[in-house]
């Protein structure tokens, strides 16, 4: 595997477990070259403080994914980043409301959102309103494959992180329908597991070029 | 030797399983070097234990040596159980809506075979504390706590409960399990009390086994968890 990118990783402490705060030792152990990281402060404390801590990292292996909280009377961030993350449920904003739409229209970055933070219907509305937006759906799980497939069929600007796509041969099922280019390897570690998804990547029943494409972020990253 | 303590064949109503077949399981087991898997049929876990058990035995017969059968017992239907040619009994207190320590499950314990039960922290049916109660009542029955309680916030408690009962084992499958937690369980309860299970075909076999294969464990502990412990429990049945 020439290049492995984890599109979904956390850095920093979490309040509910004793987990490694620095992802790099585990990335080294599992052969992960780069990771798109969000700071846990942005999820479990203050989004601004977490983003500041993230920008201070200054390590090319850790690609910063700051958290955006759209607010009516605040300036739209002008960060030069490849990806931002949204938490509409946690931060209590409307993903398809006028403020979020205006902000997302202005931000030139991939938008990552956890399925637990939204719904397929909201994502369909969002991607229909903003067809140029590129959305990475994190943590889709394994129980909603039918809804995910419907969403991906209707919204060509949605890519899927596969770390939790965990029912038997589901990744192959998705690749057959949507192509490996729309599948993105990620884990959600250390809260979610990285060992199983790492092993899965080495044992997918797909052409080698497809596995390598998934490993480096599909055609999204 | 690699033995998977927790497998299934068949479909499940909640969601789409792209490959629910026994043949699909065996082809992945061959690729990963998994010698054998204990299975129950999901029809049996659901509404028809008798019919599901028949399908599980048929799958085992089609693939000699690759599947052990966990025959499902439904406490409402009181279906027939056998004592020969099986790995043991599978029960699912949450699906059955019958607490693990309810007397309606007594016919299961009376067999003396290993028992794999769904375990789910804070469930009124299968909280790990109920496993401790049953393990104390039936110290001769090896009792496998499926999913180690399922939710990460309950893993440490499940391990403490298992540590107090030598016939209680922690089985590792579940969508919230991590390789890191498997290593922690081995520290908390002892590597001789942790068993690899995948929940495949419900879940992907490669993800379930990958958590064992890549967990931050020493090789001796990994060997116990991925098969040594279950081989010891099953004796000549594995």
TrEMBL record, chain A:
Gene3D superfamilies: Metal-dependent hydrolases (3.20.20.140). It comes from the Bacteria. It holds the Pfam family Amidohydro_2. One of its GO terms (molecular function) is hydrolase activity. InterPro entries: Amidohydro-rel (IPR006680), Metal_Hydrolase (IPR032466). Residues 15-215 form the Amidohydrolase-related domain. This is Amidohydrolase-related domain-containing protein. It comes from Nonomuraea dietziae. The lineage of its organism: Bacteria, Bacillati, Actinomycetota, Actinomycetes, Streptosporangiales.
Automatic annotation (TrEMBL), chain B:
Gene3D superfamilies: Metal-dependent hydrolases. InterPro entries: ACMSD, Amidohydro-rel, Metal_Hydrolase. Residues 4-235 form the Amidohydrolase-related domain. One of its GO terms (biological process) is secondary metabolic process. Coiled coil: none annotated. Keywords: Lyase. The keyword Lyase applies. GO terms for cellular component: cytoplasm. GO terms for molecular function: carboxy-lyase activity; hydrolase activity. This is Amidohydrolase-related domain-containing protein.
């Amino acid at each position: 595997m020439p290049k492995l990118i984890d599109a979904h990783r956390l850095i920093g402490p979490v309040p509910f477990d004793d987990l490694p705060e620095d992802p790099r030792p585990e990335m080294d152990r599992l052969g992960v070259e780069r990771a798109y990281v969000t700071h846990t402060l942005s999820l479990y404390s203050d989004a601004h403080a977490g983003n500041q801590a993230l920008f201070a990292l200054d390590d090319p292996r850790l690609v910063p994914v700051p958290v955006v909280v759209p607010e009516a009377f605040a300036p739209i961030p002008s960060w030069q980043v490849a990806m931002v993350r949204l938490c509409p449920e946690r931060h209590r904003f409307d993903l398809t409301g006028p403020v979020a739409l205006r902000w997302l229209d202005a931000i030139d970055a991939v938008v990552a959102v956890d399925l637990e933070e939204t719904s397929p219907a909201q994502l369909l509305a969002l991607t229909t309103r903003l067809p140029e937006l590129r959305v990475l759906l994190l943590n889709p799980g394994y129980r909603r494959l039918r809804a995910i497939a419907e969403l991906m069929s209707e919204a060509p600007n949605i890519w899927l992180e596969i770390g939790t796509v965990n029912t038997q041969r589901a990744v192959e099922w998705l690749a057959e329908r949507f192509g490996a280019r729309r599948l993105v390897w990620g884990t959600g570690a250390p809260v979610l597991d990285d060992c199983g998804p790492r092993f899965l990547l080495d044992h997918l029943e797909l052409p080698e070029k497809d596995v390598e494409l998934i490993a480096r972020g599909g055609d999204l990253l | 030797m690699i033995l998977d303590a927790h497998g299934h064949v068949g479909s499940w109503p909640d969601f789409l399983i792209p490959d629910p077949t026994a043949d699909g399981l065996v082809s992945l087991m061959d690729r990963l070097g998994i010698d054998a898997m204990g299975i129950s049929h999901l029809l049996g876990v659901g509404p028809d234990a008798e019919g599901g058990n028949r399908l599980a035995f048929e799958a085992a017969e089609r693939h000699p040596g690759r599947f052990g059968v966990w025959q499902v017992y439904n406490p409402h239907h009181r279906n027939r159980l056998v004592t020969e040619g099986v790995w043991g009994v599978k029960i699912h207190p949450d699906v059955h809506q019958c607490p693990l320590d309810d007397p309606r499950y007594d016919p299961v314990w009376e067999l003396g075979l290993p028992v794999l039960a769904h375990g789910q922290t804070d469930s009124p049916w299968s909280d790990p504390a109920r496993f401790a109660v049953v393990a104390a009542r039936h110290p001769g029955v090896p009792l496998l706590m499926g999913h180690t309680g399922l939710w990460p916030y309950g893993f440490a408690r499940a391990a403490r409960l298992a540590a107090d009962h030598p016939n209680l084992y922690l089985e590792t499958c579940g969508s919230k399990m991590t390789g890191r937690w498997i290593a922690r369980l081995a520290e908390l309860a002892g590597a001789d009390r942790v068993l690899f299970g995948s929940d495949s075909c419900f879940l992907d076999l490669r993800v379930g086994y990958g958590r064992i294969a890549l967990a931050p464990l020493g090789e001796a502990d990994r060997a116990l968890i991925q098969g040594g412990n279950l081989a010891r429990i099953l004796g000549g049945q594995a």
